[in-house]
């Protein structure tokens, strides 16, 4: 009887494991093969060799680019080098990426930049918020941009127990923001176990010097976050759920879900066209290829554009799709005046004229 019970339990566990494995593969789009969608006027950006995980473009065409992310379980072509912030002026005839100098006193050796966001104050001061992972921890670094010197002055490092596994931020002022936590657990093994088990424990946090609180929860893997041009709505990408959540923002900074847009790709970062309100997403068409990196079977890249997301039937357009021979693991797409920048987690970056 005892042996039969052990065998029965083993069979149940094996069945549960098999079910979770199939579901995990489905969430990663493990069977998806990509059909190419090409753009005619594109070239790789010289000088960006270790990723451009996130990009934020100011209204005047200055693009900030975070580069050099080392993320648990993902490929890095230079794991021992610190991260960088690049700047491109998209008004130039031939824009080039220039590394921004960071003020003394900031720990450059452990700089591991992830999501970024800019904020322009009433006096036209530009603040850059950078998610940082020094020694596998999570902080949000706040810089002031000095355009004449192509430099960033470090103002403060923000740490908080609710900012435990930060992926992305959207700045709301010079000292407050929304942030996504992409996992509940911080330990890398537990992080992937959390994903494997399908636990919807990631969330969104509001931070200010006087108040820090959870404002949305129940995400499989909350990732990119951004805000509508009129500042009324917040958009949150749930990477593993293949969805974008549309949230209404309230006066007390709380968020209420209005709708969920379902997609067939793993949406990473979200960028907003300030003139049209269109959402541009850098996506991972097949997450299995991203996590289980194989130089013979490269992770592809995909860019989508979402128009009229608040309508009953938003228009989703696949703007770019490529199997990894040019660009591996796209994570962001941002537009300015007919120009498109596509960044990746750990690979190169692409400049296109639309």
TrEMBL record:
S-S bridge residues: 42-352
Q: Which GO terms describe its cellular component?
A: extracellular region; membrane
Q: What is this protein called?
A: Paraoxonase
What role does it play? The absence of paraoxonase activity in turkey and chicken blood and in turkey liver indicates that PON2, if expressed, does not hydrolyze paraoxon.
Keyword list (alphabetical) reads: Calcium, Disulfide bond, Glycoprotein, Hydrolase, Metal-binding, Signal
Q: Where is the signal peptide?
A: 1-18
Q: Describe the PTM.
A: Glycosylated.
Cofactor binding notes? Binds 2 calcium ions per subunit.
Q: Which organism is it from?
A: Chelydra serpentina
Q: What is its main location?
A: membrane
Q: List positions binding Ca(2+) 1.
A: 53, 116, 167-168, 223, 268-269
Gene3D superfamilies on file: TolB, C-terminal domain
Positions annotated as glycosylated? 269, 323
SUPFAM superfamilies tied to this protein: Calcium-dependent phosphotriesterase
Positions with a binding annotation for Ca(2+) 2: 54
